[in-house]
Fold:
Amino acid sequence: MRRTSRWSSVSADPGTGNRANHDRRLPQRHEDMVPRPAHQAPGPSLVTLDRAPRSALTSSSPTVASLPPLAAQAEHLIELGIPELAGMRVEDLRTFAADSGRATGGDLLAVHPDRLSASAIAPLLRHDGKPGFVVTDMPDVDHFAPSAVDLPDAPLYVVNGLDRGDRLANWTPKEALPVLSEEGRSPLLLTEGMHWVLQQPTALERNHCFMTIGSRLRKANGTLDARTPALWISNGTGRDGRERRNAPKVGWCWWGNRHTWLGIASAESRRP
Structure:
């Protein structure tokens, strides 16, 4: 087992755009981390394992309340102006929701990322009455595309069986992906996670937020960028600005890093 400092990869508010967030030479603490119990001795307390913590291998289950019916979700998207942003007719959105068949309370209505970008959705997110935003050091957010995820070839589709992934908190994306595959689950895309928060803002809770590792950025040389997108709640520090404290935030984490406050969100299936 290899021990490393818990402060080696995150700072006062990871993903704010401050390069110190990911600089192992600038150890800093941040308030989103789980507080150290009073009886615990001072000093580094986060153990980095050579393999994933097996105690988290439990059956997947929803971690938030049921979603509204698809028809209600469609109306909410219409109120937000999504049809105009996605270049589709209001009638088509309503018809799709009405014709999508069974609704289980776990169905999410999503617009294909080719039709609606993450940067377009971000300002529509809300938490504590504040609009969402993308961190300043992620100007390429819209280039993060589905990776090893089969999407329906349609402008609208339904995501079923959402799980915020609390059980995978403190796992790296690299560790979690094969486990999700073994379970027959699929990692959420960034835009899917954003659609989830649009319909259900309580899907984001302080210390219980999530990564969306189904979206990856492929570099010009064909390799995958080491960043993975995530959604969490801003502390209003660094480049975020005080006015954004408690606002929903689109940021990124390293593919090989763990965070106790970030789960790894997934779905059971998608259907057109």
Summary: Helices lie at 70-79, 82-86, 90-99, 118-121, 173-182, 190-199. The chain is about 20% helix and 20% strand. Residues 143 and 217 are 6 Å apart (CA to CA).
